[in-house]
From TrEMBL:
Protein name (Swiss-Prot/TrEMBL): Uncharacterized conserved protein, DUF433 family
Matches recorded under Gene3D superfamilies: Winged helix-like DNA-binding domain superfamily/Winged helix DNA-binding domain
Species the sequence originates in: Streptosporangium subroseum
PANTHER family (UniProt xref): SSL5025 PROTEIN, SSR2962 PROTEIN
InterPro entries in alphabetical order: DUF433, Homeodomain-like_sf, WH-like_DNA-bd_sf
Length: 217
């Protein structure tokens, strides 16, 4: 499964402007995140990319883009960590950004080891960004789930392999929720409404406007 920028943004909490900015490579700096499926048109993100994007959004709530880039430079350069960004637990506390490991935490900005982190963050869980609720990545709605092992991570109706957008499309074609089971026997009316609600969320996803500098970050 691949995610276009619109769906990747809706699932991660990033803005489309941020996605574009974060995948750019500068003269003296690397990109924050280059999509591993395709970084040119059509731009396509992987499931791991979306997890990493949620990490970046969480960090951006508490740290400047400059600090995030400095932390990533330390991670990739000084520490020689080359795995996908989704493999790491990164936490910000307003003053710095840390790499959390089982036996220690490393301050990636000030480059200090054995730092105490008071709160660990699970980027898969729901969170708020500028007052907006960003849903759980693995279960964005009660009856809509995301599992990399099912259809490569496309959001589906819980307990099935039915893509949410196919169900939502039927409702938009004026098929009643109660009749969705005529097309997909395992999809209830309630699940169909959840699929439509999530489809509306993705289609209308338009994060709060930010100052130009913040929007680019």
């Amino acid at each position: 499964m691949t995610y276009d920028p619109k769906l990747a943004a809706a699932l991660s909490g990033a803005t489309l402007r941020q996605l574009a900015h974060w995948r750019k490579v500068g003269v003296s700096r690397g990109a924050v995140l280059i999509p591993e499926i395709s970084s040119t048109r059509p731009v396509l993100y992987s499931f791991r990319d979306v997890v990493a994007l949620r990490t970046c959004v969480k960090l951006r709530n508490d740290a400047s883009l400059q600090k995030i880039r400095r932390a990533l430079d330390t991670l990739r350069g000084d520490l020689k960590e080359r795995d996908h960004l989704s493999s790491y637990t990164l936490v910000a506390d307003g003053s710095s950004i840390y790499l959390a490991e089982p036996d220690q935490a490393v301050d990636l900005v000030r480059k200090k080891a054995n730092v105490v982190i008071h709160e660990m963050v699970d980027v898969l869980q729901p969170f708020y960004r500028d007052g907006r609720h960003i849903p759980s990545l693995l279960q964005p709605r009660a009856h809509v789930t995301v599992d990399p092992a099912i259809r490569g991570g496309v959001p589906v109706i819980k307990g099935t392999r039915v893509p949410y957008d196919e169900v939502a499309a039927l409702l938009r074609d004026e098929v009643s929720p109660e009749r969705i089971s005529d097309y997909y026997p395992n999809v209830t009316a309630t699940a169909a409404l959840d699929a439509a609600d999530f489809a509306d969320y993705v289609d209308s996803y338009d994060p709060p406007k930010e100052p130009r500098e913040a929007a680019a970050g």
